[in-house]
Design brief:
heterotrimer, A alpha+beta, B alpha+beta, C alpha+beta, A: Ubiquitin-like (UB roll), DNA polymerase, domain 1, 5-stranded mixed beta sheet, about 30% helix, C: 5-stranded antiparallel beta sheet
Chain lengths: ~210, ~725, ~325
């Protein structure tokens, strides 16, 4: 039974999802957005894997949905749509981000690399080949995000970006096992391929060192 | 093919392809983002619209009214599906949950409506415009309140007997000189597979085709047929790639049911995925169990009395969590009582999650064994060795088909360096960290099931295998590929594997740790039939024909395999069926898991430092993918031990932490280097391939090994999972 | 997610003016928290003003010997800056302990300060929540509150501020600089930036509608050993149960600020005065007015023990 402290009655109207809108401190009063004429659409252009794309999108479209639903680049995955899993990791202007927590229109002029841009079945990126060799995946759904992150992590270490597990944060980071595990922690793999992914990354890092 | 006597020597014993650590069959697709998952099919459903599911915001009660007008007027909206226009959806055979509140609401986030619109953004926004008027009624959300009184339910189809007594437990326990009597709690847990439940549904007349993510294809057609009230023959499902399941996609979930219903209502194909925050309360989960264990032993460690009583809750009509399954077979002991009881709860349905019963059951039993070892002053490995049995302890005339449990224990102890463990807890320190070692044994069913496959030989000598088996990350593609290559005597790259199509021959699908060995056996049967057909087509004497190196030989005649298909593709199909052997022999897999942990003496944070699992599971078809299965199980075990719990709000009646930030599964930083090894074993009672599954064995027993290691590190015994620091912080050494 | 219009501002004043004149408007920087909440309709802006083109992404030396951190400096860039790593290590460490590499690349300095609570009842729009829907009640009180506040809470809200960076800024006595629609600037001491919930839990901080953060300034370095210790259930990519930001001096004095315990970074200067006496003494003062729920009570001993670990680490380092 509902606790009385909230004044919840047995017969009530719950306005699902709209509670906050109705009661928020900034009342959502008539800004000329959307309405029955249709949601605002905007042009946006960006490069994906070296190819320029000009799209006109509902402003609400995330970079992730622009890639998957509009450009049909479905290698980038939607696991949670809330920045809690990392399956949507892509590389934008050289830095990895969660494509689910970014609006497409924020990326005007940007350079996006997805897993499809790293390598193809005919021509694997060294990290993709290392994932194959070390079995760094099982169901495969988090894998594109893991690979985009893994490639970025090695670059971040080379660039000297420090991490939580460094004892001396003024020192240059090294591609140790613990460093890679910490830096990869934004990519969840429920199949539990972590140990194998660490080995794949170590191999690629070793070849480059 | 009927399999009713233990396998003799056969083509699988050549082990030229079987037993090799091949890269996954689908490796290049998965690593390049070109494997196609359910939501990603292009061009299969022209004119499709997007569906978005609205979940109930009460936990128990009834919908009084749904005002859909504003949503229907919203831009792009094609239709709104509710119980008023959905027809009355039926219920499938495996899950009892209803896919749509109609109008009764059975649990929080039970689907109330599907909004269908031209775009995802439009559907999502319009779903928030629905006004639902509920009448709330009292619900039952507290398992603890019913733990004492919950009854033993009527016998169900799965999970073994709900109550079984052997000998006289009460007397034996009373007489035992050494006893353990404790209560253990395993919380509700979520599968959290990375791919959300997702489906594209398209109707052609009275037939529906769905691209979905489901582990058991033929359960899917059966259950979707029941839900839609159409013959299962009118349902076609495709699931060639599945982004994880762990039991959470066993058969039809709300995505599949509602996509099909919505597509029927709006007259357009519909694609929808369950949004992540909905999955925890909408779909199934592993239900919480409260387990009572009593162990009585002689002073030499031999168990004389074992009681394991487990209570779980479920929606009306739901099943129990069969936590006593492992206890029935793991250790010797003449007097035994096992029992599962069932409370009624108005939370989302409890159902199969990886190693149902065994995983949570051993989370209790294997702590109890650790407690017993300490009381006896005995090494925990030795205690388990002393209580080994080569026969089914409930039925001594029935031997285990293979039981290398003691070898797992001994091999593991030796490799792990178990001898360096200090029996007295709290003795090893490394700076801020308290170090401990723990171990646990594991048993998980090895029985397999009827499985079919179709084999096609093309003119080019390629062999194509088609079965409705699925690959949820388990390696099924590769297992089929290797089995077919071995039996046909060709290189692995001559094999084409097609899975996850409900029109293909039936298998048990992915579940119960029986998928890989079952489909391997089905593939064997189909390939043996293909060999006969090839020999006949070539006019070779089938008795002496040999398949090797891509050639077919008999006497001094030789042909290349493809020659047999010059006149046209050869297509054969067979199904392997099993009788008797699984009754004559108790077929199980075994493991011993060893863990070392560090517990921070200041903060109580636990870090797993290393884990080793030694497994005995029959022939290992692919040691690379099998090892991945086991280490993946270890990772899930780390989560079960340390972080995973669906927190119940007993006032509102729902799982509160219903997203991947609130429900914490292990991340990279939680997982050290993991080791898994397999003992050299073949089990000819299982199938001609002599292999058993490992996917659930890898999880079973891991969490208690970690719990026992935490005890060894700290001297603090926690019997309530997960072992979060708040449960023992104040019992750590005073350091201030 | 409700429909919204989207524009990019060219100057801070233009951005502030655009938001100020439109009820329901919000600034958009990294978007990592705002978009998350918009998908759930916890946030329902009708107009987003993207500030990414404002030239606020530099870290500059101030005339006083401190640093001025542009509002749009990413978490990664800030924590990687060698001046920050060398002179303000607690800040670099706190940032690195938060979120994930992907999120830190996108999240900005200002946005991080404006993170909203991770209270699960705030996130679930079916639940009463005074922060999300003022007057609807607080479902967290009496509910699943293990992660929530133990001090500074009210009868209307027990949410915590979820970030890491702000604890470090608090021990560094940072100042938040803002500009409003009229072009007026103000400098808000970080101590005054975040609010306690009181009877207005919907207000996380003291910013007015349309007031834009332009920078955070740090005073000159204070030396000492810089530590950030974050305790959470898993080893990474999780919010703190308790965190401690500290700058400790050789003589045993220092500054400490607790995270994960209150609606704002929790620093009590009177507690710092007894730091040389040890963690128990300092925590006793810092948490003298604690009002934990039963489920969150452990945070009091956890805070004490974590501080003890930090002090020990400071002595060793």
């Amino acid at each position: 039974m509902a606790p009385v402290m909230f004044g919840v009655s047995r017969r009530e109207v719950l306005v699902t999802g709209a509670v906050s809108a109705a009661l928020s401190s900034f009342p959502a009063e008539a800004h000329p957005a959307g309405g029955e004429a249709g949601p605002p659409a905007m042009p946006v252009s960006f490069k994906v894997n070296g190819t320029s794309h000009a799209l006109t999108l509902d402003t609400r479209t995330t970079l992730l949905d622009a890639l998957r639903e509009h450009l049909h680049l479905t290698g980038t995955k939607k696991g949670c749509d809330h920045g809690q899993c990392g399956a949507c990791t892509v590389i934008v202007n050289g830095e990895r981000i969660n494509a689910c927590l970014s609006l497409a229109v924020q990326h005007e002029g940007d350079d996006v690399t997805t897993v499809e841009g790293l390598g193809t079945p005919e021509r694997l990126h060294p990290m993709q080949a290392a994932f194959v060799k070390h079995d760094g995946y099982q169901c495969g759904y988090c894998t594109p995000g893991q690979i985009c992150s893994a490639v970025s992590v090695l670059q971040e270490i080379r660039r000297g970006v420090p991490s939580h597990v460094q004892s001396d944060i003024t020192a240059a980071p090294q591609p140790t096992n613990i460093e890679m595990r910490e830096r990869m922690s934004g990519n969840i793999c429920r199949c539990g391929a972590y140990s194998n992914i660490a080995e794949a990354m170590a191999e690629v890092a070793g070849e480059r060192a | 093919m009927k399999f009713d006597t233990p396998a003799g020597t056969n083509p699988t014993d050549r082990m030229r392809v079987l037993g090799k650590p091949l890269d996954r069959y689908e490796a290049l697709l998965k690593t390049t983002g070109t494997a196609t998952y359910a939501y990603e099919w292009k061009d299969v459903a022209p004119g499709f619209a997007y569906g978005y599911v609205l979940g109930a915001t009460i936990s128990k009660g009834r919908i009084l009214a749904i005002d859909t007008r504003e949503a229907e007027r919203a831009p792009g909206v094609v239709g709104v599906v509710t119980y008023r226009n959905a027809g009355k959806p039926g219920v499938g055979k495996f899950y009892v949950q209803k896919m749509l509140a109609a109008p009764e609401v059975d649990h929080y986030h039970q689907p109330v409506a599907v909004v269908v619109a031209d775009t995802f953004e439009q559907a999502r926004a319009a779903a928030a415009l629905l006004r639902v008027d509920y009448a709330r009624s009292d619900g039952r959300f507290d398992l603890d309140a019913q733990a004492a009184t919950a009854p033993v339910p009527p016998q169900g189809e799965f999970g073994g007997p709900n109550e079984k007594a052997i000998g006289s437990f009460g007397q034996a326990f009373a007489a035992a000189p050494v006893k353990v009597d404790q209560r253990y709690v395993v919380p509700d847990q979520a599968h959290c597979m990375m791919e959300p439940h997702a489906t594209i549904a398209r109707w052609d007349g009275d037939r529906v085709t769905c691209w979905t993510s489901i582990q058991q294809m033929n359960w899917g057609t059966r259950d979707l047929g029941l839900i839609l009230d159409i013959p299962k023959e009118n349902v076609r499902l495709h699931s060639p790639f599945i982004g994880g399941g762990f039991g959470g996609k066993g058969t039809v979930q709300a995505d599949l049911a509602l996509a099909a219903i919505a597509a029927r209502v709006v007259g357009r194909p519909v694609k929808l995925a369950l949004q992540r925050p909905l999955m925890f309360n909408t779909t199934i989960h592993r239900p919480k169990t409260i387990q009572h264990i009593q162990l009585g032993a002689e002073r030499d460690g031999r168990l004389t009395a074992i009681l394991h009583d487990s209570v779980s809750g479920n929606l009306p009509g739901g099943r129990t969590e069969p936590c006593v399954t492992s206890t029935r077979g793991l250790y010797a002991g003449a007097n035994r009582l096992t029992r599962t009881r069932l409370a009624t709860l108005d939370l989302a349905e409890g159902n199969a999650m990886r190693a149902p019963g065994e995983a949570p059951g051993l989370m209790a039993l294997e702590i109890a064994m650790d407690e017993l070892a300490e009381k006896l002053g005995m090494d925990p490995v030795q205690l388990r060795i002393v209580n080994d049995t080569q026969v089914d302890p409930e039925e001594p005339s029935r031997p285990f088909s293979k039981r290398a449990f003691v070898q797992c224990l001994e091999e593991g102890a030796a490799r792990f360096g178990w001898r360096s463990r200090k029996a007295e807890p709290g003795q090893v320190r490394d700076g801020e960290w308290l170090i401990g070692m723990g171990m646990a044994g594991a048993i998980r069913g090895g029985k397999i099931a009827k499985a079919g496959a179709r084999a096609r030989l093309g003119r080019d000598g390629r062999v194509t295998i088609e079965t409705d088996m699925t690959d949820i990350g388990t390696g099924s593609y590769t297992v089929v590929q290797q089995t077919a290559a071995e039996v046909m005597g060709v290189a692995a790259d001559r094999i084409v594997v097609k899975l996850g199509d409900s029109s293909f021959p039936e298998t048990p699908g992915s579940g119960g740790q029986q998928g890989a060995p079952s489909v391997a056996a089905g593939t064997y049967a189909a390939c043996m039939a293909l060999r006969d057909a090839v020999a006949q087509r070539l006019g070779f004497n089938t008795a002496e024909v040999e398949f090797a190196d891509g050639q077919v030989r008999a006497g001094n005649r030789t042909a290349s395999l493809g020659d047999a298909a010059v006149g046209g593709e050869i297509v054969v199909e067979d199904t392997i069926t099993f009788e008797k052997l699984a009754e004559q022999f108790n077929q199980q897999t075994f493991a011993a898991h060893f863990a070392e942990v560090a517990v921070n003496a200041y903060t109580g944070e636990t870090r797993v430092r290393r884990v080793l699992s030694v497994c005995a599971a029959g022939r290992i078809i692919n040691p690379k993918t099998a090892r991945s299965q086991v280490i993946g199980g270890i990772v899930m075990g780390i989560g079960a031990a340390l972080t995973e719990e669906m927190a119940v709000d007993k006032r509102f009646g729902f799982f509160v932490n219903h997203d991947l930030a609130g429900y914490e599964v292990p991340v990279h930083a939680d997982v050290p280097h993991l080791d898994a090894i397999f003992l050299d074993e073949v089990d000819p009672t299982i199938s001609p391939v002599k292999a058993k599954g490992v996917g659930e064995l890898g999880l079973t027993g891991v969490a208690p090994a970690i719990a026992n290691a935490i005890y060894n590190a700290t001297g603090i015994r926690v019997r309530d999972y997960p072992l979060t620091l708040d449960k023992y912080l104040d019992r750590l050494p005073d350091i201030v | 997610m409700k429909s919204f219009t989207y524009e990019r501002a060219r100057t801070p004043a233009e951005a502030a003016a655009a938001v100020a004149r439109t009820p329901g408007a919000k600034f958009l920087a990294g978007g990592t928290n705002l978009l998350d909440l918009m998908k759930l309709e916890v946030e329902t802006p009708t107009y987003l003003v993207d500030v990414q083109d404002l030239a606020l992404d530099r870290i500059e030396n101030t005339g006083e010997g401190g640093l001025r951190i542009g509002a749009l400096v990413s978490n990664t860039a800030l924590s990687a800056d060698m001046r920050v790593r060398r002179d303000y290590g607690v800040l670099a460490r706190a940032i690195q302990a938060g979120a994930s590499g992907q999120l830190r690349n996108k999240a900005t300095t200002a946005g991080n300060l404006l993170q909203r609570t991770r209270c699960p009842y705030f996130y679930d729009t079916a639940m009463p929540c005074n922060k999300r829907a003022p007057g609807s009640g607080c479902a967290a009180i009496g509910g699943y509150s293990r992660q929530l506040a133990v001090i500074g809470s009210s009868d209307t809200c027990i949410a915590t501020y979820p970030g890491d960076m702000a604890q470090a800024m608090r021990v560094l006595d940072a100042t938040v600089e803002t500009v409003n629609a009229r072009g007026a600037t103000r400098a808000i001491p970080i101590a005054d930036f975040h609010r306690l919930p009181g009877d207005k839990p919907e207000r996380d901080n003291v910013l007015a509608h349309g007031e834009l953060i332009t920078a955070v300034t740090l005073p000159p370095p204070i030396g000492g050993t810089h530590l950030y210790r974050k305790v959470r259930d898993r080893a990474s990519y999780a919010f703190a149960l308790v965190s401690v930001a500290a700058v400790l001096q050789r003589d045993g004095t220092g500054r400490v600020c607790f995270g994960g315990v209150a609606h704002k970074p929790w620093r009590v200067e009177a507690a710092e005065a007894v730091l040389p006496k040890g963690a128990r003494a300092a925590a006793a003062i810092a948490f003298a007015d604690a009002r934990p729920t039963e489920a969150a009570r452990f945070k009091l001993s956890l805070a004490t023990r974590t501080l003890a670990a930090v002090i020990a680490e400071g002595k060793a380092g």
